[in-house]
Amino acid sequence: MPLFNLSIAKEKQLIIRMKRMGISENDLRETYVRASGPGGQKINKTSSCVLLRHEPSGISVKCQDSRSRSLNRFIARRRLLDLIEKERCGFIEEEKKRIDKIRRQKRRRSRRAKAKMLDEKRMRSSKKQTRAPIKAHSIEKE
Asked: What domains, with CATH codes, occur in the chain?
């Protein structure tokens, strides 16, 4: 019997991934809350938003991507597995490195670096000014 009303192949992939990571359904606490945002009366009356919490790690995920509760349950489990995998496998370190790199790129230049950059710009400018503009030659009829 399908758990999420999706294709059997997708459910099998999710179950295999959960087993591979050592996570069982007993480790998860699932609650349903009313979704918020645009959607009219239907979204305000049904509890289609899924709040999924992995008890051993304390990681929680909230999903309201779809109007269907079963699809939201499936998506929440996938997101939770992604977060747990990132935490366990060290993808967080790579993410920190990427953020630090962006921070370094956005940081103000030192006075010396700024002066060097401006000198190079002046040199390029003077080089371009020495070039003569292209003149159109008119050919006169003989």
From this structure: 8-89 (3.30.160.20), 94-124 (no CATH)
- Residue 142: pLDDT band (50, 70, 90) is low
Contact predicate 35/29, CB 8 Å: no
Residue 62 is predicted with a pLDDT of 93
- Please state the pTM of the whole predicted model: 0.60
C-alpha–C-alpha distance, residues 64 and 36, integer Å: 8
CB atoms within 10 A of CB 131: 7
